[in-house]
Write a structure and sequence with these properties.
CATH class of the largest domain: Alpha Beta
Number of helices: 11
Structural class: alpha/beta
CATH architecture of the largest domain: 3-Layer(aba) Sandwich
Largest sheet: 10 strands, mixed
Number of domains: 2
Helix content: 25-40%
Order of helices and strands: HEEHHEEEHEEEHEHEHEHHEHEEH
Strand content: 15-25%
Bound molecules: adenosine-5'-triphosphate, magnesium ion
CATH superfamily of the largest domain: P-loop containing nucleotide triphosphate hydrolases
Shape: elongated
Number of strands: 14
Length: about 350
């Protein structure tokens, strides 16, 4: 915890205890966490203090603490008070990667949770497998896709993991253009994307037939798609069908989809494809209704997120995890990938997959 944060937390803890004492609902603040966007204080209420009383005092607490909003939640250890960090911390990808001692295979680093710990997504796990990223313009979807791609490239060898990067705007994955992990050069054109996805479906069928599991000689293939709705619009029903089959059957064959879109409605994605993304990552959306569409579940408050990398991870069935997406300067990422490429020239011609250009 930085030197400046401690007095601020102590000041807030004193305020909380004073307000509670004034309302005859005493309690003690026992600790807290400082997340990139949220600060949490842990409160241990006196035995006679009722939770409902503390909850009713949320507005008075916020007023006394001079914070714009405050939520009161129960926790196995007591009560948690959460309020916005007045100095939101953006998160840098490289120091965060360095902090995670050992990133397991085929695991992407997403960012830093509001509890202050790095958030990882292991693509090989059944409850991750395929990832759908949703959020309005400026929420940080492309930055998140780039963090996923970058962490996979920096922590896996090209013989274990390949990337297929599709982005109609041609910008998102640009800093990774030299990565030796690319199954094909970056794809911006929808015709090429359609062809690459068909070829990947053939790979899936071959792996299925031979009973090949991902491992040495059978790299996992991660398909990263920015602007999924554009691709579906350009490619029509055949692309939707191919993606649906990849989402339904890909995991066991080591093929994973990570796709971003502003509007993840069933009308755009198709119900079956939509249902086959076990992990949703949702950034700021425009309305409570959009939050429901994006997250595929009831009230998540995604419309109250702040944008610019403020995200919720929604692992199927589990409680949402709020996190700040790790960002990196494009120039720095390009340099890191350049160093990698210099050690290992691209080996596309040696790929044992029918994915290289025919
Ligand atoms: N994690 C982050 N950390 C710092 N800044 C961020 C982060 N994510 C996004 N931003 C800022 O917000 C801008 C928009 O982010 P990004 O391009 O990823 O949004 P998007 O959701 O892809 O939007 P669009 O739908 O228009 O493509 C970035 O250029 C950057 O300035
Ligand atoms: Mg974008």
């Amino acid at each position: 915890m930085s030197q400046q944060v401690r007095p601020y937390l102590e000041y807030q803890a004193d305020r909380v205890e004073a307000v509670l004492a004034a309302h005859r609902a005493p309690g003690r603040v026992t600790g807290g966490t400082v997340g990139p966007r949220l600060i949490r204080l842990f409160l241990n209420p006196a035995p006679a203090t009722r939770f409902a009383t503390i909850k009713r005092l949320a507005d008075d607490l916020a007023l006394a603490m001079r914070v714009p909003a405050l939520t009161v939640d129960r926790d196995p250890n007591g009560v948690v008070l959460s309020f916005p960090n007045p100095r939101p911390k953006l998160v840098d990808l490289f120091p965060l990667l360095a902090e995670v001692d050992h990133v397991p295979a085929a695991t992407a680093l997403l960012g830093l949770t509001d509890g202050g710990v790095p958030l990882l997504a292991r693509l090989s796990a059944p409850d991750v497998a395929h990832v759908l990223i949703a959020g309005t313009t400026g929420s940080g979807k492309s930055v998140l896709l780039r963090a996923i791609a970058a962490s996979l490239v920096l922590c896996n060898s090209p013989s274990a993991l390949r990337l297929l990067c599709i982005d109609p705007k041609g910008r998102t994955f640009q800093p990774l253009a030299a990565a030796p992990h690319l199954a094909r050069p970056l794809i911006a054109n929808s015709q090429e994307a359609v062809e690459a996805l068909h070829s990947l479906l053939r790979t899936l069928q071959i792996r299925d037939r031979r009973g090949e599991l991902p491992g040495e000689g059978t790299p996992r293939v991660i398909v990263l798609i920015d602007e999924l709705a554009d691709l579906l619009m350009a490619g029509g029903a055949p692309v939707a069908e191919t993606l649906t089959r990849l989402a339904q059957r890909g995991r066991e064959a080591g093929i994973h989809l990570v796709a971003a879109t502003q509007h993840p409605s069933a009308a755009i994605l198709g119900g079956v494809m939509r249902a086959n993304f076990p992990l949703r990552l949702v950034g700021r959306v425009a309305s409570a209704q959009d939050a429901q569409v994006a997250s595929g579940r009831g009230s998540t408050d995604a419309h109250l997120l702040h944008g610019r990398g403020d995200f919720l991870a929604l692992p199927g069935g589990d409680a949402p995890i709020r996190f700040q997406v790790a960002n990196s300067r494009e120039k720095d990422l390009r340099a890191r990938v350049g160093e990698l490429a210099a050690q290992r020239p691209p080996q596309r011609a040696m790929l044992a997959l029918p994915m290289s250009r025919q």
